[in-house]
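Chapter summary example.
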Amino acid sequence: MKLNKLLIVAGHGGKDTGAVANNIIERDINLIVAKKVQELMSKFCDIKMTRTDNETYLTPYECAVIGNKWGADLALHIHHNGGGGDGAEIIHTVFTEDSMGDELSEKIADKFRVIGQNVRRVFSRWNSKENNDYYSAIRNADQDAVITEFAFVDSKDSKMLTDEWLDAEAYAISSALIEFYNLEVKMSYKDVELEEILNMALENPDDMINLIDTLVLLSNNNFDLGIIQKSGKFIDDAILKVFKVAYELGKEGYYD
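The structure predicted for these 256 residues follows.
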């Protein structure tokens, strides 16, 4: 069970607003929560967003294709409900024997309860015509896919859709993912942290193994390539130091 690649689908988009009531547009709050989950989960896995603005619209099928081509381990569809109900719903595949989606959905439901939202149901829906899942987002996904519906925009539930509650929703979802997949923070370095690490390795010129191990660690642990590129001059200087140290050690017979 792994979560290296997480596809986040902010439901609806463009002219498809989703549910609208009480000055709340589902399309917009879906994206708010999706971006917050992206921020929280980016420390733990690679993220792909199907949209990052409210102008873009993709069908659930198109979102599934994106996830399949990317090789996502999980497709997380973030929605909010309409229809005058109360409480959260989480939807997973009907094929529970071949999926962890039902168990993950229960974990998300537990986290929603912890922050104070009641859960109406965790469920799947059968499409008798297709002999498959009813929801295209789940039916067409090659990976586990779950749909979260945290609250209704058109009932008393709407009081749980303030900025504070949307933050709490995102934290609950992220917490469920981290615990369910037993995730650890992936390796990443800020410029100063990277410089400190390499300088520490260079402090003792006799310990070339330490420096080599450090460089291998950096290359093997999903560090932020953008950060490395921004630190290009420092990296060039560090590599030059490596060669200089290696050259001096070679002259002194260190490798004999």
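To summarize the output: The chain is about 45% helix and 15% strand.
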